[in-house]
Write the structure tokens for this entry.
Amino acid sequence: MFNKKVLVDQSIYTTTIPKVLPINFDKLNINILENYYYKNKLNLNQFSYLKDYYRLEFDQQIRWLSDFIKDHYGMYYEKRVVPVAHAGIVVEKNQSINSHHHIDEYDLDNSPDLSSIIVCKTGNEKSYVEFEYEYGRKRHHKHLVKLEPKKVIVFNSELRHSFLTNINHEPILCISLKFQLI
């Protein structure tokens, strides 16, 4: 018998926020849009992926979302995670967000292990996040995840991903949460 050691695990987990969780998505949308309109970006450098991410006021809604992912992931996958960052994402009409990952290559120890996207609002037309595989035999393969309100997407932070062009008349609003394994 051979002993197996997984060297690289690249996964995408999806679920939906349950109805019993009292998340007020209207409050989340207001939080995202206020920071968007005031141009409260995480980074003003045009070459940083953080130029597309907006600061958010940490409130009860974000705490509940963070706890939901932390508890859900811990229960099903028996790994403990702690939240390390949160931000808002706005994808305007005819806009896309370029491919990026959430790893700081100059500070790997403090980079997140898991990232998540919580979809707060979309339009009627289909919208997607595209994930790119970078390792192994499936290198350069891509996977699309449809964006739907209340959908939670959790993935390894080193996975490159992009928001495809928004063809809706209204913006797509999402929350980004990042976690480290402990």
